[in-house]
Amino acid sequence: MQEILTLIHSDGDPTLSRSIPSWERVPWLEQNTAAKYLEDRPCPRLISSHLPPSIFPESFFTSQAKAIYTIRDPRDVCVSLYYYAKMSSFLDYKEDFGEFLEMFSAGKILFGTWFDHVKSWLAYKERTNFLLLTYDELLKDLQGSVRRICQFLGKDLDASAVDSVVKNASFESMKGNKMVNYSLVPNDVMNQSISPFLRKGISGDWRNHFTSEQTAAFQCLYQEKMKDVEIKFPWDELQRKIYWES
Questions:
Q1: pTM for the whole structure
Q2: Which end of the chain has fewer CB atoms < 10 Å from its terminal CB, N or C?
Q3: 117 in catalytic set
């Protein structure tokens, strides 16, 4: 999403995305370096965050700033975070996957449980300055998703500019772009010999990690935690199918 927004903001021109690191172009709000990248930057500014609404800046909720909330199958989030934790020196949990899954399910990780995070942000889904997208949508139809984002932002790009956004925001392109793949970060901070920052870029990799027992247990947890959520996500039907087959 950082890359998509950079490219849309630049009318499809990849110069910025290939010359300035993503964490400078679209800094993380919760990092102490964010202010120096944002203070003197003219609007509109691009900002990323993992924060839940409870500790998000209050000024956002009374502003016209636009938010795009990107949500992913929690099982894939768990697997992705597992590998990220293994290669990151600043995250402590290095347990085997079974133990990590238990921590993830209980919310004993950075930013708490996936369920609480998602449900707290979904409370704002009816706001006109809030757009909900799934990772699955981006993978299945990146061009359609880019057009939807452009419409949300009021940004009118021609067909060639949209094509450039799609091309340069593809997983293959980002994996080879040192401004995006975090290869500029020293190994003592993020050791990519353990796991690359951009690993696979797919949906469903959790199947290569969850046992049948873990799958069934997580499905029960998911159904209980999400029973009051009316929105149906792309992975919901698959979750039910796997649960009943198991």
A1: 0.90
A2: C
A3: no
